[in-house]
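Tokens for chain A. Residues wanted.
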């Protein structure tokens, strides 16, 4: 090994670690800001301050607010799916328990952050392109996970539509929960829908 090579590798590793940590802080601060202040209050300056990151460092990784927010929602979305998988591993596999698990997942802060992004994308063509791509990726992942948790065979007639309808339903329930605690009604609807879904599966 040439002299200095090991030191160079260690330096690059430290830089890579710092980059990952900076991005993680920015992602978490962005989602927190979206939940607390909405799209209009989520500025790149506010996010950098919350993350304890310099404005220059923030701009180095994300040039625009749209890039930053889309990346943050995707990052937290991926983390949330992993949390959902871990919870599913220790949860009763009844249809009701699985639908309840998926409904709770959609009623999280991630949904609130994503909702702010979705609404802003309606009137922002550049942001809309990013959001459509993000929505498609996360949608496919959550759909696949729902199939797995429900042990559902999507080749069976009606199953694919029933699982997709489940995801559409829980998104609607999460939307209803934005202005006031809708937990009691959500629990009732989840129980009712789980019985219907079980018959279809």
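Reply:
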């Amino acid at each position: 090994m040439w002299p200095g090579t090991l030191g160079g590798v260690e330096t690059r590793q430290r830089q890579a670690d710092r980059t990952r940590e900076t991005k993680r802080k920015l992602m978490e601060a962005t989602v927190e800001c979206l939940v607390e202040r909405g799209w209009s209050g989520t500025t790149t300056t506010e996010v950098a301050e919350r993350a304890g990151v310099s404005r220059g460092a923030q701009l180095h990784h994300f040039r625009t607010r749209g890039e930053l927010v889309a990346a943050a929602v995707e990052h937290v979305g991926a983390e949330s799916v992993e949390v959902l998988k871990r919870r599913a591993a220790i949860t009763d596999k009844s249809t009701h328990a699985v639908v309840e698990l998926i409904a709770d997942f959609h009623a999280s802060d991630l949904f609130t952050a994503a909702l702010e992004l979705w609404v802003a994308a309606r009137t922002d063509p550049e942001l809309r392109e990013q959001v459509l791509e993000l929505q498609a990726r996360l949608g496919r992942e959550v759909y696949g996970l729902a199939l797995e948790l429900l042990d559902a065979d999507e080749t069976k007639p009606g199953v694919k539509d029933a699982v997709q309808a489940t995801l559409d339903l829980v998104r609607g329930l999460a939307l209803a929960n934005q202005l006031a605690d809708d937990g009691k009604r959500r629990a009732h609807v989840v129980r009712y829908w789980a019985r219907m879904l079980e018959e279809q599966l």
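The two ends are 61 Å apart (CA to CA). The longest helix spans residues 5-41.
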